[in-house]
TrEMBL record:
The keyword Hydrolase applies. The keyword Hydrolase applies. InterPro entries: Bact_Sigma-Reg, GAF, GAF-like_dom_sf, HATPase_C_sf, HATPase_dom, PAS, PAS-assoc_C, PAS-like_dom_sf. Keywords: Hydrolase. SMART domains: GAF (SM00065), PP2C_SIG (SM00331). Residues 239-291 form the PAC domain. This is SpoIIE family protein phosphatase. SUPFAM superfamilies: ATPase domain of HSP90 chaperone/DNA topoisomerase II/histidine kinase (SSF55874), GAF domain-like (SSF55781), PP2C-like (SSF81606), PYP-like sensor domain (PAS domain) (SSF55785). It comes from the Bacteria.
Length: 815
């Protein structure tokens, strides 16, 4: 036992000694502009901190402002860029009291300033800096927080800070040769002469605009550079990056930007200050701490499990000169491999290919006892060449193998395997690099897994709110596509529907609810259901949309919706279009011409209580394609909606409408994904056989039933039906009698013949449907009519129509 205690004390002493040595080496380099940042990075290496920062008094003396930081983004912990000096934040209390302040998850949850933290437990420690230098703030995600040895290392870091707040330069000439100062409100930038030389600009001709510098960068590097120079996207992990500048001749030049955001005070804007240096010849000479910082920056923006794996591979494989890296999630005692680099099967041992199949999706941990032991211990394990390992691991790294358990709180999120083919010497710095990277990757893996699960849930909910399939239509083919936005996880409000209606009509509906949220998706489902219900009731298109508008107004929602409703008569090849603040249909005619329909529109639904929604006619020759889309398909930040509609019409003209699924896929091929996209297409082919129709108004006179029978007989004779009169006339008699006896108002009879199938439909003004009796006694005086209709008909039923119902029966005739 004494030996164990002595060994532990020796390890602690060694860690403290190494920290002191590293801090002394950094302090000796007085000329380095990154001295403070390098000091903070030692808190990550030696104290196991996930985040470390220095807050210093601002010039006005009222605030403690964030001056430098290292580690994962501070926003993950709800930390701000400044705190009132007289407030009760841990930073302010430690600064005023001159003593350390430590808070655990329970205290942070009770603190009002910490309630903005998204999720996860962590420990926070604030230590005062000597003099009036401010305060050192450190965060740990390990169970139990900082140990006594960790706190000792943090004290050494706070002693080494010796911070002096940078003063704002008054003149451009005050800037160092490679430095810059960017005003975040105006975009005006002051730069040193050497920096302008790196960009190939003449100091006399430089206009002082940051856009001028950005225009000289390689376009592929511009998004990452904009994330640094725009205040809204500034994050801790993005304060250092490398980018390329175009040269008049030869390859682009690699530059490294390092900067920090200085918050503005009273009457002063926030400024981004830092340096830009040439690293074209030094790109391979990157310190291990810089690699950790770069990995932290990449993991801060990784949203999926695969993104995390790619970031880990990019951060470790080349610097360690490894031959292969595998990243796997731990799920119920099984390792689910998510990323393999290199991805080629032949680069991996034969045992992996045979046991884990081609894609190596998973493997039981118990099959590799050495790996299981490393996961139980929860710390990085390294085996040099020749170590006795089970075959599944030995062949991954015959020249050396490193196994990194990926911790996340009090459990293991997964493991990372790194293998070398030739003997590899593991230095102390490499071990520290692996340990630091493992902690960052574990936390990122848990966040990414939650993102993937939420993304799948969002997709499932979205699919449940949209039609599972589209109906088969006589004389037409309809297809639809929906693509959710890739910009986030929120539910969208785009929807579409195809509603079969009586008399071979079909309603095409597409719409968009304002915003992206659960509320927008819920309202979308309500609007789709309401429009379908009003359409099936038999209302004309303008009434359907007006009813939906009134319903949305009555719901008192803060959201509005747009909608385009097209009622297509498949027999006549005509349609009526109603628009409520939505895009008009695009028509592609059989000869390839396209036309954006000039359909008059009304306001969006839910805006004006008594709004008019005019109907516009459309003519549809056989072969015409109707395209309905939401604005996500045609509108981008770089182009207006008219240009997008013209582009959609052009793409539709180029498409061959033989396969409507291929047409829809082609139209969505280059669709921007910053917004949801819904697309509904219908190709009208025309009906090969048009039904025969006749209608009769039944007057309420004593001979009404006899008149209806005579009308039915004459109609059948004119259609060439010469048999089975009795069955048809009996059905007509029973249905007309029921309508006259049990309802008031108008009664109408419709006869429709398609091939040998006759449909008798009686419409009345009562919404009550006839009820089929379960049993009838011999003394009953009624109730047998519906039983007769059921016995004589192939099928029968009722459906709602505007202001009443329709009772119908279909009979199969011999002609």
């Amino acid at each position: 036992m004494a030996n164990v205690v002595s060994q532990g004390a020796q390890e602690r002493g060694t860690r403290t000694t190494r920290a002191e040595g590293a801090l002394k080496a950094i302090a000796a380099d007085q000329e380095s502009p990154e001295r403070l940042r390098r000091v903070l990075e030692q808190a990550l290496v030696f104290a196991g901190a996930a985040f470390a920062a220095v807050y210093a008094p601002a010039q006005d003396g009222e605030l403690l402002c964030l001056m430098e930081s290292a580690g994962v983004p501070r926003t993950l912990y709800g930390l701000r860029d400044s705190y009132p000096r007289a407030g009760r934040s841990p930073v302010a209390v430690a600064h005023r009291g001159g003593r350390p302040v430590s808070l655990g998850p329970a205290e942070l949850a009770a603190d009002a300033q910490a309630r903005r933290v998204p999720s996860g437990d962590f420990f926070l420690t604030a230590l005062p800096v000597q003099g009036d230098g401010g305060c050192l703030l450190a965060v740990s995600e390990r169970p139990g927080g900082f140990t006594a040895d960790d706190l000792r290392c943090l004290e050494l870091v706070s002693e080494a800070v010796a911070f002096t707040a940078p003063a704002a330069p008054a003149e451009a000439g005050d800037l160092p040769a490679s430095a810059f100062s960017l005003a975040m409100d105006t975009g005006r930038v002051r730069v040193g002469d050497d920096l302008l030389d790196l960009f190939g600009l003449d100091p006399v001709e430089f206009d002082g605009r940051v856009e001028t510098l950005l225009s000289l960068t390689v376009p592929e590097d511009l998004p990452s550079l904009m994330s640094v120079v725009e205040a809204d996207h500034m994050s801790i992990g993005d304060r250092e990056l490398e980018f390329r500048v175009l040269q008049p001749t030869g390859p682009p030049k690699w530059l490294r930007l390092r900067g920090r955001l200085l918050p503005g005070g009273e009457g002063r804007p926030a400024r981004l200050v830092g340096t830009v240096v040439d690293v074209s010849t030094l790109r391979s000479d990157v310190t291990d701490v810089a690699r950790v910082q770069r990995l932290a920056a990449a993991l801060a923006t990784a949203v999926t499990v695969r993104d995390v794996g790619k970031a880990v591979v990019a951060a470790l494989r080349r610097p360690l000169r490894a031959d292969r890296i595998a990243l796997a999630e731990l799920e119920s005692e099984r390792l689910v491999v998510t990323v393999l680099d290199p991805p080629e099967p032949e680069a991996w041992p034969e045992l992996w290919r045979s046991e884990w199949r081609t894609e190596w999706p998973d493997a039981p941990v118990r099959a590799m006892p050495t790996l299981a032991a490393a996961l139980r211990e929860g710390r990085a394990r390294i085996w040099p060449a020749g170590s006795p390992l089970e075959r599944a691991l030995a062949e991954v790294g015959p020249g050396g193998l490193a196994v990194l358990p990926l911790p996340a709180g009090n459990r293991m999120a997964g493991a990372c395997l790194i293998g070398w083919d030739t003997p590899h010497d593991f230095g102390t710095d490499e071990r520290a690099l692996l340990t630091a990277c493992a902690g960052l990757a574990g936390q990122a893996l848990v966040r990414a897994r939650a993102f993937d699960a939420e993304h799948e849930l969002v997709g499932m909910l979205q699919r449940q709110l949209l039609p599972r399939s589209l109906p088969r239509l006589p004389g037409a083919v309809a297809v639809a596509r929906y693509l959710p936005s890739t910009a986030g996880l929120e539910l969208g409000g785009d929807w579409y529907d195809v509603i079969p209606l009586p008399d071979n009509h079909v309603a095409l509906v597409i719409g968009d609810v304002q915003g992206h949220s659960a509320g927008a998706a819920t309202l979308m489902g309500q609007m789709r259901t309401a429009l379908r219900a009003y359409a099936v009731e038999g209302h004309p298109p303008d009434v359907v949309v007006a009813h939906a508008n009134r319903l949305l107004m009555d719901m008192e929602s803060d959201l509005f919706a747009t909608c385009c409703y097209v009622d297509v008569d498949l027999e006549e090849g005509a349609a009526w279009c109603v628009r409520a603040g939505h895009l008009p249909p695009v028509l592609r005619y059989p000869d390839g011409r396209t036309d954006i329909a000039e359909a008059e529109g009304g306001p969006p639904l839910g805006v004006v209580a008594r709004a008019d929604f005019p109907m516009s006619p459309l003519r549809l020759p056989p072969g015409t394609v109707i395209a309905l889309a939401t604005d996500g398909l045609v509108e981008t930040p770089d182009s207006d909606i008219d240009e997008g509609m013209a582009y959609l019409a052009g793409r539709l003209a180029e498409a061959a409408p033989t396969d409507m699924g291929l047409v829809a896929d082609a139209l969505l091929g280059n669709a921007p994904r910053s917004d949801d996209v819904a697309l509904l297409l219908l190709r009208y082919d025309g009906m090969d056989l048009r039904p025969l129709r006749e209608s009769w108004t039944v007057w309420r006179v004593p001979q009404a039933v006899g008149h209806a029978r005579r009308f039915a007989r004459r109609t059948l004779r004119s259609w060439g039906v010469t048999a089975e009169y009795d069955a048809v006339l009996l059905v007509v008699s029973e249905l007309v009698t029921n309508a006259l006896v049990h309802t008031d108002g108008k009664v109408r009879m419709d006869l429709t013949l398609v091939n040998d199938r006759l449909r008798v439909a009686i419409a009345d003004a009562s919404p009550r449907s006839p009820v089929r009796p379960t049993s009838i006694g011999w003394e009953a005086t009624g109730g047998r009519g519906i039983l007769l209709v059921e016995a004589l008909s192939a099928t029968w039923g009722t459906l709602p129509v505007s202001g009443g119902k329709q009772v119908w029966a279909e009979l199969v005739l011999g002609r």
